[in-house]
Design a protein that fits this description.
The structure holds 2 protein chains of 2 kinds.
Chain A (H helix, E strand, L loop, with lengths): L4 E3 L2 E4 L5 E6 L6 E7 L6 E7 L2 E5 L6 E5 L5 E5 L8 E8 L9 E2 L3 E5 L1
Parallel strand pairs in A: 2-11
Antiparallel strand pairs in A: 1-3, 3-8, 4-5, 4-9, 5-6, 7-8, 9-10, 9-11
Chain B lengths: L2 E5 L2 E5 L4 E8 L5 E7 L6 E6 L5 E4 L2 E5 L3 E6 L8 E8 L6 E3 L3 E6 L1
Parallel strand pairs in B: 2-11
Antiparallel strand pairs in B: 1-3, 3-8, 4-5, 4-9, 6-7, 7-8, 9-10, 9-11
Classes of the chains: A mainly beta, B mainly beta.
């Protein structure tokens, strides 16, 4: 059984550019959530995808968007990058939307915006 | 809006010195409270889920407990490899939005 994987590991972009981050969910999981973790802070919920539909969103602007594919892998897209977007981006997968289900996290993508 | 407050922000223990980490929460209907461990530069590693007041769970040197307002993570006779940031999170929504605290950074000194 493979765990959650994310790519790339690290990424450096300049302000105004666009970025796409990728996540493969754990085998058997159909729900993917994305989080942003700034240095020294806890992860902040961006949005969740369940069966290819957005199933909830945190307080992030529309330039943060996502996709989920039929194999339950997911992408996070960020347009018009700002310096404050520099953070560790975490993907977490779980099975279904059963309340209280534990989420399993990937290793993250470290994004640096210059 | 859900709120999670963890204390202390940092804790330094001698190897073998037991202690507890606190997580206070304010939610409108708790669906689950989670504890995670996070090593520097890595994703959080799931430890426990607690669902209702009075529930307790154990794993090796860790024991998590839950009341209606807070949760404790008790660490018994810690070892240096227990050094990490411990995150507490709650789920109270109709979907799996999880609200995290900022964590407690634990350092265990040999």
């Amino acid at each position: 059984e493979t765990g959650v994987t994310q790519s790339p590991t690290h990424l450096i972009k300049t302000r105004g550019q666009q970025v796409t981050l990728r996540c493969s969910s754990q085998s058997g999981h159909n729900t993917v959530s994305w989080y942003q973790q700034a240095l020294g802070q806890g992860p902040q919920f961006i949005f969740q995808y369940y069966r290819e539909e957005e199933n909830g969103r945190g307080n992030f602007p529309p330039r943060f968007s996502g996709l989920q594919f039929p194999n339950y892998s997911s992408e996070l897209n960020v347009n018009a990058l700002e310096l404050d977007d520099s953070a560790l981006y975490l993907c977490a997968s779980s099975s279904g939307t059963h309340l209280g289900n534990e989420q399993f996290f990937g290793p993250g993508t470290r994004l640096t915006v210059l | 809006e859900d709120q999670v407050t963890q204390s202390p922000e940092a804790l330094r223990l001698q190897e073998g010195e037991s202690s507890s980490l606190n997580c206070s929460y304010t939610v409108s209907g708790l669906r689950g409270l989670f504890w995670y461990r996070q090593d520097p530069g890595k994703g959080p590693e799931f430890l426990f889920t607690l669902y209702s007041a009075g529930e307790e769970k154990e794993k090796e040197r860790l024991k998590a407990t839950l009341t209606k307002k807070e949760s404790f993570l008790h660490i018994t006779a810690p070892k240096p490899e227990d050094s990490a940031t411990y995150l507490c999170a709650v789920n109270s929504g109709g979907y799996q939005k999880v609200t995290f605290g900022i964590g407690t950074k634990l350092q265990v000194i040999p």
